[in-house]
Amino acid sequence: MFQQKDKRDCGLYVFKFFLYKYFNEDIDINTLKRNIEYEKGGISLFKLIKLYKENNFDTQTFNCSNEELLKINNDEFPLAVIINRNNLKHMVLIDKIKDNNVYYFDPEHGTELKIETDKFLENFDNLILKLSKIKIEYKVNKDNTIVFSKHKFVISFKLTFFIYYSSLLLLFLLYFLSMFYKCLFQKNWKMSYLLFQYSF
């Protein structure tokens, strides 16, 4: 379920596992693959961050030394990190660092693993990614408008009611016109029928 088939897809499977474990969301890997652009060497970090953003997650990237990684508070995890594997960049997801062990998800194996801290640091590429769910916040102004802070989108209650009642009025008008034309058509048809009878 979470094991990558293509060596280029580690960043996609990390995101899929991240959503599933921490947010109880199950996204189809093919949906992610359809919405990402592959390059010759794989998927660029820039494209991954853009994809995460499109799925309502902000991503912060940090250069991080081995010593700094060990000092990170466990409340900050999970963190996606880049490691070196077979001369390639590979992404894994650290769940926690505890008792001189790193507990992490590796999409190459499709499961969570445990490794001694020193061994993990041998391949750590000193780059971490912090994913945060985008919160859509809003406030109601004095003029009864709603402002969404993330998208700067404003909804006016007055405008909403105006559109609603205008739609009802238009619907009533269309109904009235249809009845009017129906009656008019029937009256003209009867007149035409009478004229037709008297013409012979």
Automatic annotation (TrEMBL):
<dbReference type="InterPro" id="IPR005074">
    <property type="entry name" value="Peptidase_C39"/>
</dbReference>
<dbReference type="Pfam" id="PF03412">
    <property type="entry name" value="Peptidase_C39"/>
</dbReference>
<feature type="domain" description="Peptidase C39">
    <location>
        <begin position="4"/>
        <end position="131"/>
    </location>
</feature>
<protein>
    <recommendedName>
        <fullName>Peptidase C39 domain-containing protein</fullName>
    </recommendedName>
</protein>
<dbReference type="GO" id="GO:0005524">
    <property type="term" value="F:ATP binding"/>
</dbReference>
<dbReference type="GO" id="GO:0006508">
    <property type="term" value="P:proteolysis"/>
</dbReference>
<dbReference type="GO" id="GO:0016020">
    <property type="term" value="C:membrane"/>
</dbReference>
<feature type="transmembrane region" description="Helical">
    <location>
        <begin position="162"/>
        <end position="181"/>
    </location>
</feature>
<keyword id="KW-0812">Transmembrane</keyword>
<keyword id="KW-1133">Transmembrane helix</keyword>
<keyword id="KW-0472">Membrane</keyword>
<dbReference type="GO" id="GO:0008233">
    <property type="term" value="F:peptidase activity"/>
</dbReference>
